[in-house]
Specification:
- By secondary structure, this protein is mainly beta.
- The chain contains no helices and 13 strands.
- A six-stranded antiparallel sheet has the order 1-3-4-12-7-10, with no helix packed on it. The protein has a three-stranded antiparallel sheet with strand order 9-8-11, with no helix packed on it. A two-stranded antiparallel ribbon has the order 2-5.
- It is globular.
Length: 116
């Protein structure tokens, strides 16, 4: 068993998937768990992901702030306590709403990610 402490651990930024000020803390990465990857992602006002597609289902669990998750056909505003299911293969982006910051957990099963 292992307890994951939000807000702890090494945060990094600069990944090609991110635009603006975004930091990510990987709490469970490939090789640490067979079925899950868990990352805590903090978006400052204006920070977001680029359009991307996962080769696996994704859950986004909003822990603080206000944000947006968008697909090619819809855009929804998200708040603390919201859980968003993004099915495998759905092109989408997510990030802070204008004038707000956002923190969410990203929970994925193993799979590839494609940008664009």
């Amino acid at each position: 068993m292992r307890r994951l402490e939000l807000g702890s651990g090494l945060a990094h930024s600069g990944d090609a998937i991110f635009e603006g000020e975004v930091q990510m803390r990987r709490h469970l990465d490939e090789g640490e768990a067979e079925l899950f990857r868990v990352a805590e992602v903090s978006f400052r006002d204006g920070g977001r992901t680029t359009w991307h597609v996962h080769g696996a289902d994704q859950l986004l669990v909003v822990t603080s702030g206000r944000g947006i998750v968008a697909t090619e056909s819809e855009e929804i505003e998200i708040h603390p306590g919201d859980v968003v299911f993004v099915p495998e293969g759905e092109r989408h982006w997510h990030g802070a709403a204008p004038g707000a910051d956002l923190v969410h957990l990203s929970i994925l099963t193993p799979g590839e990610m494609t940008l664009g």
